[in-house]
Amino acid sequence: xxxxxxxxxxxxxxxxxxxxxxxxxxxxxxxxxxxxxxxxxxxxxxxxxxxxxxxxxxxxxxxxxxxxxxxxxxxxxxxxxxxxxxxxxxxxxxxxxxxxxxxxxxxxxxxxxxxxxxxxxxxxxxxxxxxxxxxxxxxxxxxxxxxxxxxxxxxxxxxxxxxxxxxxxxxxxxxxxxxxxxxxxxxxxxxxxxxxxxxxxxxxxxxxxxxxxxxxxxxxxxxxxxxxxxxxxxxxxxxxxxxxxxxxxxxxxxxxxxxxxxxxxxxxxxxxxxxxxxxxxxxxxxxxxxxxxxxxxxxxxxxxxxxxxxxxxxxxxxxxxxxxxxxxxxxxxxxxxxxxxxxxxxxxxxxxxxxxxxxxxxxxxxxxxxxxxxxxxxxxxxxxxxxxxxxxxxxxxxxxxxxxxxxxxxxxxxxxxxxxxxxxxxxxxxx
Length: 431
Ligand code: SDX
Known about the structure:
48% of the residues lie in helices and 7% in strands. It is mainly α. Strands 1-2-3 form a 3-stranded antiparallel beta sheet. It has a 3-stranded antiparallel beta sheet with strand order 4-5-6.
């Protein structure tokens, strides 16, 4: 924790109170108000946490004005072009880039944990075939608590380590199983001779009836998508994981809570909603109609994949994703993909519109990801599960950081109560 550098003074009804100001290694100073209620009898009020730092962290830094995203200090564009997902996992978990031996050991440990307990297969048969894969993932990941009892004690560093490796390793297997179940195909077991992204593609697209060769272009694109979604500071699902873990809940339950929160269309569900929106727009000539709807206060419609609570100039992940979309679709020979053309024209027209410029709305990570995922053969229902498996390392790294903080206490916000004050019960015959 940083030391106070100056103080902030709050004056209410002529009474002044001083609070320490803490300075970060990067980003805004924070006013430490932990003693506010005890000294003033007042709460702060910040319902969607637009001005609230919920923790201190060393994992990811975002500068919304500069469009900067650093993982342990390394810029996302460098990691996306020079690193690979399991190396980024190591960086997020342990705080430094691994040397060759450390990387080999980490990749070997993850690879050897990719299978799930055979009895977990039975969970899937309890779902309807048309269940959304996210519904399956919430259920199955939460149920991991019932299978992996030897890695649920959050106070045991070794069990925390095993749970971290198990979750990173098994999420692609569970996501692929959820997909296979919904299309009525048999599960495909992971292979230890394949890299992380290739294993996932094979588990999703291989069938027992024929050999499956992973396309290295798709594997590289898949790995880059995993990296671009790995972690993102204190977003809604990560904050959910932190709050769940503050009660001492086991890691599988906490990650299941994160998956549930990510599912919403305002968060990780936006990639599915964005592609469905692009398909609804259909052709570029209908773009003005949808931009008008997005600007209409009386219309709840929003441009999905646009806007961000933190980024106010551009989302650096969207920049990389757009380049990747061009590259992958060209390599796949579908560069004249009408959905990509619509997405690019929509971005162009929206960014030329004063409404979006004034409100600082730009494409976010979800705007182009769906174009690539669909070109790779995934249905829109698999877009958010892929976001969830990518973000598992971020959730786990943030969970681990919080658990290891000796000052951790249960998170328990208060409220501005605007309901009825005390009143006596009235018998039904007198109402
Ligand atoms: C992710 O937090 C993270 O880091 C998340 C994430 C991560 O990696 O974890 O980056 C992943 O969730 C990306 C965001 C994906 N969601 C979408 O693409 C859904 C569409 N976007 C929005 O609903 C919205 O932009 C949010 C949810 C992303 C941000 O919401 P905020 O910060 O609460 O902003 P807001 O809703 O208060 O909007 C501010 C103004 C409003 O207009 P006014 O009321 O001020 O007149 O901008 C307008 C909004 O109506 N606005 C939009 C818009 N987004 C905001 N108008 C049209 N289309 C949009 N997409």
